[in-house]
Design brief:
heterodimer; A: Uridine Diphospho-n-acetylenolpyruvylglucosamine Reductase, domain 3; Alpha-Beta Plaits; 8-stranded antiparallel sheet; 5-stranded antiparallel sheet; 31% helix; globular; B: alpha+beta; 4 domains
């Protein structure tokens, strides 16, 4: 065990004994996400660097404090990528923060989510124990799949030390098509296309314009382009578009009015238009709908639940209240016991996910 | 009631259920189940005494066959109140003894939960009961040009509930993922009789990712009553390349070269010469018998995509020193290429009275070391082994051949298997890629995980099943068991008390 890990263990044990809250944090680029962060900052950036990278094994293992941009540049050097296209939300994003936030970008609907690419983690739990789950191989069913449960836990279960991620080859060809259509028609078409063997890798609809990215073998992309029609975007414009959607620098996100909350609505892809007050941007083939709205939280959650989904107050909300959709009591009880299992003293990012978790 | 500091709940020692009173349990269950849904006579219980791992057998105390979720809730409440272990069971095709009954427990069969409740071609989802067979989902989705991607070899018989329990894979999971990548939501009942819905018909759910924990949990966390799966568009075309190599190491390197070229084939399988010889006399797939190893590499997608990928694969294989390359010319030939690979298990059964299937996964680059070591182990244990391999994802299925009627051969086969699993861990891999731990590999869990990690697994179980009544004694070894196993290992392979049953 490295000296730094040993120091961290001591710090965790001392915090657990004293009941001191620790705000586990990498670059702080996702400080805006979840309920209000509290506690002494526990900076993970000192634990950085690539542990191993074997392009032919499709696996990279990195320390949590490694800058996300550095990891992406490394795998790009071997023609590979993080297929879940994680948002950075700032220059200092770390791999640990990326995994803890569990957020995925435009490619998610077809390539899979961040959690789908997590093969293993090493974590420091609330008892000061260093625990390894999963590993560096694609298929592994020994023990409960704790590594995927750590993904998206917002640092509330432990300090992520290292993570092993599956990487994939970058597509040979990519093109973006543009269609002028309304919301309902866009949702219908995206679901129709989703049921066909088309190389769709991302979609975004806003303001009466649907843009669709195709990725894959040269022949497949060209054939799909001919079949679907639409207007082809120039490569540079397409790159800027998907970058802007992923990083939320796109106009829709940038133009939020004061008092508006940015809601993240996760829905069945074919769910009807949500018909809530405000402006919308739709991603993930219809399964992710961003809503800028000043409507009351209760009304939004109720409508989204009726459509079979859940709503997150992503930016600009009152973060002392619940940010994530409240859970039914039996599921909440399991969540609380799981938190207790990893962090019995409740020191890691307390209350960041839900009140008391 | 057990508490979080109970040594049973924390996995320090095995729980003792010998005080369970069969007559009282039967009486209580008879009150909540209709006639014909409860079995407790030896004759009726016999079919449940094992799953696909038939070397391990145990008669259950009682078998319950509910037809409704309310009945599942009622059964679990009775068991919870009376402190009775519950073992959920689907089709019983599992290969690790995960559904092996408990002598003082209830087997809860979900066989009557066999309906597809809803199939939505537009949203590409199907809501099914856990006893629905894996292949039945794809058959129902087929008219819409869709299918359910994970295809474990037992897919004609195995159920989706069992797939959820084991996080089953198949030959196409390098490209299409495992069960965990293809299930959106699971509805189930906890031991307390609470109905919980985990996951969502969207692409994510709020809170901790409990779905990831439930999938692959081997019936240890909850009893599944409904599963929503994702359906995938059927590829227009699939074509398969068969390549022969005069050296297994070269074949392994060719696999790495295919991946390095940026190709993720739909399937990438390898067989060694003894495996090829075994299947050839069984199905006559036309495999080259002089090859030390053969690779099967499948490409799927649009015709244009497949043509492009097959050419790239061919070029890589030529560079990698393949001695022969055949590309399937039509669907019949593709099926013929696959017939041999898919017949590997039955072929092992034909050339040997018994066989024992291993399931370790290793980093692909360690394949050569593993195969060399297996050859040495054949000498050490005096048994033959044939090797089939999901080469794309490093998942090995060595089939150890033995004859259970020969004194000591089963024990030697088990020792051989244990050696392979421990080497898998030492090479940076895992003891099980897709078959699960069950009862079969429970001792090797002690080699893969430390005490604090095993304790955390018990704590995770406690978050769902605070009384530790669901499938006790499976998947995660108690610290007591590991201590005993440790002693067994120090004794240099000489197992103490060879005539007592060991699990």
């Amino acid at each position: 065990m490295s000296d730094l890990t040993e120091q961290w263990r001591e710090r965790v044990c001392a915090a657990a004994a004293a009941g001191t809250a620790l705000q586990v944090r990498g670059g702080g680029t996702k400080d805006f996400y979840g309920r209000t962060p509290v506690g002494e900052v526990f900076d993970t950036r000192g634990h950085a660097g690539v542990v191993s990278y074997e392009p032919t094994e499709l696996v990279v293992t990195v320390r949590a404090g490694t800058p996300l941009a550095e990891l992406e540049a490394l795998v790009a050097g071997s023609g590979q990528m993080l297929a879940f296209e994680p948002p950075h939300f700032g220059a200092g994003a770390t791999v640990g923060g990326c995994v803890a936030a569990g957020l995925s970008g435009p490619r998610r609907a077809t390539a899979g989510a961040l959690r789908d690419f997590v093969l293993g983690v090493r974590v420091l739990d609330g008892r000061g124990e260093v625990l390894s789950f999963g590993g560096q191989v694609m298929k592994n069913v020994a023990g409960y799949d704790v590594s995927r449960a750590i993904a998206g836990s917002l640092g509330t279960l432990g300090v992520i030390l290292d993570v092993s991620l599956k990487v994939l080859p970058r597509p040979v060809a990519e093109t973006t098509l543009r269609f002028a259509i309304g919301e309902k028609e866009a949702i219908d078409r995206l679901n129709d296309w989703g049921g066909q063997p088309l190389p769709v890798s991302a979609s975004v609809w806003a303001d009466g314009v649907l843009q669709l990215r195709l990725s894959g073998a040269e022949a497949a992309v060209r054939a799909a382009e001919r079949k679907l029609g639409g207007e082809v975007l120039a490569d540079e414009a397409a790159d800027a578009l998907w970058q802007g959607v992923r990083e939320q620098t796109d106009g829709f996100f940038a133009d939020a009015a004061p008092g508006e909350v940015l809601w993240r609505l996760s829905l069945p892809s074919s769910a009807a238009p949500v018909k809530l007050p405000g402006k919308q941007l739709i991603e993930w083939g219809g399964a992710l709908r961003w809503l800028r709205s000043d409507a009351p939280a209760a009304a939004i959650r109720e409508r989204v639940a009726a459509l079979g989904g859940h709503a997150t107050a992503f930016r600009g909300a009152d973060r002392a209240g619940e940010v994530f959709q409240p859970l039914p009591a039996p599921v909440m009880a399991i969540q609380r016991r799981l938190k207790q299992a990893f962090d019995p003293a409740g020191i890691f990012n307390p209350g960041r996910l839900y009140d008391g978790i | 009631m057990n508490s979080a500091t109970d040594p049973v709940v924390l996995g320090e020692q095995e729980a003792d259920f010998s005080a369970v009173d069969k007559a009282r349990v039967v009486e209580a269950l008879a009150r909540v189940l209709p006639a014909g849904a409860l079995m407790y006579d030896a004759e009726e219980l016999r079919p449940y005494e094992c799953d696909g791992l038939s070397a391990y057998r145990q008669m259950p105390m009682v078998v319950a066959l509910p037809t409704t979720e309310e009945q599942v809730v009622a059964v679990l409440k009775v068991c919870s109140e009376m402190g009775v272990p519950v073992v959920a069971r689907g089709a019983g095709t599992g290969l690790s003894g995960g559904a092996l009954p408990h002598a003082f427990g209830v087997v809860l069969s979900l066989a009557r939960f066999n309906r597809i409740l809803h199939l939505d071609p537009h949203a590409r989802t199907a809501v099914v009961q856990p006893g629905v067979r894996n292949l039945a989902i794809s058959e129902a989705a087929s008219p819409h040009g869709l299918y359910y991607a994970p295809d474990p070899s037992s897919q004609i018989a195995c159920t989706i509930g069992g797939n959820v329990a084991e996080n089953s894979g198949g030959v196409h999971c390098l490209k299409y993922g495992l069960t965990v990548h293809n299930v959106l939501r699971v509805r189930g009942v906890t031991i307390d009789g609470e109905i919980v819905e985990i996951g969502n018909h969207g692409l994510d759910a709020p809170g901790y990712d409990l779905l990831a924990l439930v999938i692959g949990s081997e019936g240890m966390l909850e009893v599944v009553t409904e599963v929503t799966v994702k359906l995938t568009p059927k590829p227009q075309l699939a074509q398969c390349v068969l390549a022969a190599f005069d050296d297994v190491i070269k074949a392994g390197e060719a696999v790495a070269e295919i991946i390095a070229a940026g190709i993720i084939p739909a399937g990438l399988e390898m067989m060694d010469q003894p495996a090829t010889a075994a299947v050839e006399q069984f199905v006559r797939a036309g495999y080259p018998l002089d090859a030390k190893a053969i690779l099967l590499c499948e490409s799927d997608g649009t015709p244009e995509e497949v043509a492009e990928e097959i050419e790239r694969v061919r070029a890589v294989l030529e560079r990698s020193g393949a001695t022969e390359i055949r590309v399937s010319r039509d669907e019949a030939e593709r099926m013929k290429f696959w017939a041999g690979r898919k017949a590997a298990f039955p072929a092992a059964g034909r050339i040997s009275p018994d066989y024992y299937c291993m399931d370790g996964t290793i980093p692909r680059k360690r394949l050569g070391e593993m195969l060399t070591a297996i050859q040495e182990m054949e000498g050490k244990h005096g048994l033959r082994c044939i090797n089939v391999f999901h080469a794309g994802d490093g998942n090995l299925h060595p089939l150890i051949l033995f004859d259970a009627n020969q004194e000591g051969e089963l024990e030697r086969a088990e020792a051989f298997g244990a050696d392979i699993l421990e080497l898998s861990v030492a090479l940076g891999g895992t003891i099980t890629g897709e078959h699960g731990v069950g009862i079969e590999k429970i001792n090797q869990m002690c080699s893969q995980f430390t005490r604090p990690e095993l304790t955390m697994f018990f704590r995770v179980k406690g978050a769902f099943d605070p009384r530790a009544l669901l499938n006790p004694g499976k998947a995660i070894p108690t610290l007591n068991r590991c201590a005993e196993y440790g002693r067994m290992r120090v004794s240099n392979g000489h197992v103490p008390y060879p005539d007592i049953p060991r699990f």
